[in-house]
Amino acid sequence: MDNNKTQRQLGGELVIPVLAVVFTLYFFSSIWNSPWTAQVSAFAVGGILLLVCGIFIIRCGIWLRRGEASLGFSNLFSREDLHTGRIGLLVTTIGFCVLIEQLGFTLTTFLFLSISMIILAKGKRPVFIAMVSAIMALGGWAVFIWAFDTRFPRGWFETTMKAVLANG
Amino acid sequence: MGETFAILIEVFFETLTFWWVIIPTIFLGLIVGGIPGFSAANTIIILMPLTLAMTLQTGLIFMVTLYCSSRMGAGIPAILVNIPGTAGAAATPLDGYPMAKQGKGQQALAISFVSSSIGGLLTTIIALATMPILARVGFYMHSVEMIVVMLFGISLIASIASKDMLKGLIAGFLGLMIGSIGTDVVYATPRATFGFLEFYDGVPLIPALVGLFAVSEAFIIIEKKVIVARGGEVASGNWDSTFEGVRIALSRWWHIIWTSIIGLVIGVIPGAGASIASFVAYQQSRSFSKTPELYGTGHPEGLIAPESANNGVTSGTLVPLLVLGIPGGATAAIMLVVMQFHGVSFGPSLFENQPKVGYGMFMAMAVAYFLMLFTILPLSRYMSRVTTIPTIYLAPMIISFTLVGGFVPREYMFDMYLALGFGVLGYIARRTNYHVAAILIGIILGPLLERYFLLALKKSDGDILTLFSSNLGNVLWVGLVLSLISPIFFNWRRKQQGVAK
Q1: For residue B137, what is the DSSP state?
Q2: Nearest-CA residue of chain B relative to A58?
Q3: What domain count does chain B have?
Q4: B405 to chain A: nearest residue by CA?
Q5: What is the chain B residue with the closest CA to A16?
Q6: Which residues, other chains included, contact A14 with Cβ-Cβ below 8 Å and sequence gap of 6+?
Q7: B222: which DSSP letter?
Q8: Which residue, A157, B72, B126, B468, has most beta carbons within 10 Å?
Q9: Chain B CB contacts of A116 below 8 Å
Q10: Model pTM?
């Protein structure tokens, strides 16, 4: 059991090389019939990447054979991720990207900050969190949208405030 | 000579009277530089109507100050929360963030401010003195020479991958492949775009920067209550750390000088920019250091090098703009538009017909850096408190404000999802000990390297030996090989001396 704990977790370490190989092969397939100008640099760089990944995978194979490593993923995912609220934060971040187009920057930021902070704080101090979230969201709106007219996603709140401010 | 000197003195004191423009602009620049997506160029564009309404002198002082201070501002979040405000500050967290985690955020900020200000001030003076010579650098830098300069930057991958060379190379070359996404520069053939039109222009840099550094870092820091690591110093709440940072930076004055000169020379080359300069300076600093093993662990010299270099770039970009009318970067291009609106003609005649405008821009830069040293340095004590904010509040704030920053440059919702995707990639990389900086170096330099490589091959009808056909290029090749071999040699010699002792 202890031996398993000290073993190198190669499953996690192999994710990036495997992604790199798959992406490089896809890249090559997309330029197979292209002019040489589109191919030369990509084949050179991609070839080296495949070679380096190949050496890395062989090295992993040797470690596995010697029993110095396992194909575990505990360095990447663990029960701790649920406990720390990391999964919850990821879900709310995806929600933030989806909702911001409809709700605009200010409302989505308020919702995202409130929910994710409550998840990370494990439900403690919700009123304080709501106040911090409101201040941050309104502060962001005041600085970036009202003062500098930055091109942030706009929604109901921004449109209403624009009309209110335009009419004094 | 005497007449020019009199003009310089006159312009210097005249610029000082514009302190009421310079000081507020310094703080504006710090804010826009610190937020990914809000570059000085974007801010100048947003405030263009205001700039055009100002007198030429006021407008130029405003733009130059914003340019310099935003460059410095980009280093603040890079040090405190591992999020570079711009690609030019991407090498800053390599040693700045480990210092912040050790509880030395205040000291790191002071080092950054002093090396940025002195580096910027010094290169401004050098640029003024050597303008005619520097202006020619751009003419000598063709595709072959540029390839070697890029390789200087890419060789940093090997440096930061010293713990596990294979992982460093995988990260770096994966970055180079990602950087090659988009249409090829000659026939516009789409490559590896996954069917997304948004990829035809290549991978946008800000979403990559936001995802790899900010989003992934936010998912990592929630494991700790605050950023400062257990066992790190508790913020003392006094000025000692600031003074210590100033002392550390000033005691390495020679380091500031030569790394800022790297920035100046690279800044003169149109299209090169701060990101290449800071990576090259970091790599060179590590190569010639007596303690290369300390780089990446919170070594002051690893912070001084990129900060001095990226501020050296600011004065470098003004040289081709003023002497040749060729802007060295996006901000310089916008300055050109504003100056043309006011009827300024560029070229050597500028310094004869309107010397106050030509010299005035450099003087504005010098005065801005001078005032920055005294206005920003005291803030290091308060800014460093960011590292003591509980991560349950800090992480969601980082994610929301930086993801939106990823949206700003192109206004595509796609870019926010892309930043999130890069965030996941960055998180996997951090958890499995691949360096995100190596991926970013590849993404930044990949398309540039390809462009110059193709140009060189096109000019020589596909002859690969063209890479060794220029004298300057060959000198640079020798420099590159030396910079790669010298750390191995010095390391071997140190080991030999250790054995002898």
Answers
A1: H
A2: B166
A3: 1
A4: A152
A5: B429
A6: A57, A60, A71
A7: T
A8: B72
A9: 395-396, 399
A10: 0.82
Q: What is the β-pairing status of strands A69-70 and A8-9?
A: parallel
| CB of B84 closer than 8 Å to CB of B90 | yes
For A94-112, write each residue's pLDDT tens digit: 999 999 999 999 999 999 9
The domain in which residue B7 lies consists of 2-226+241-500
Q: What are phi and psi of B200, to 5 degrees?
A: -60, -30
- The answer to whether A38 contacts B189, with C-beta atoms less than 8 Å apart, is yes
CB proximity B389 to A under 8 Å: no
Domain presence at residue B16: yes
User: ipTM of this predicted complex?
Assistant: 0.93
Asked whether residue A141 carries a pLDDT value surpassing 70, the answer given is: yes
What pLDDT score does A168 carry?
66
Euclidean distance between CA atoms B100 and B192, whole angstroms? 39
Which of A24, A34, A116 lies nearest to residue B396, judging by beta carbons? A116
* B446 alpha carbon, distance to own chain's centre: 17
Mean pLDDT for back-to-back runs of 10 residues, chain B (501 residues)? 77 88 88 72 71 82 89 88 83 91 90 93 89 72 83 73 79 92 86 93 89 90 75 62 91 93 86 80 86 88 94 86 73 78 76 80 89 84 80 91 87 94 94 88 86 85 85 87 77 77 68
Is residue B340 one of the residues assigned to a domain?
A: yes
B236, part of any domain = no
Confidence of residue A90 (pLDDT cuts 50, 70, 90): very high
The answer for B 140-179 residues in CB contact with A (under 8 A) is 166-167, 169-171, 173-174, 176-178
Longest dimension (CA), chain A: 76
Domain membership flag for residue B231 = no
List, in order, residues 6 or more apart from B74 with CB less than 8 Å away. B33, B34, B84, B85, B86, B88, B89, B92, B310
User: Could you say which of A42, A52, A116 has the minimum Cβ distance to residue B191?
Assistant: A42
Q: Which residues of B touch A45 (CB under 8 A)?
A: 173, 176-177, 180, 446
B413 touching A (Cβ < 8 Å): yes
Q: Which residues of B touch A93 (CB under 8 A)?
A: 215, 399, 403, 420, 423
- Which residues in chain A have their CB less than 8 angstroms from residue B167's CB? 13, 56
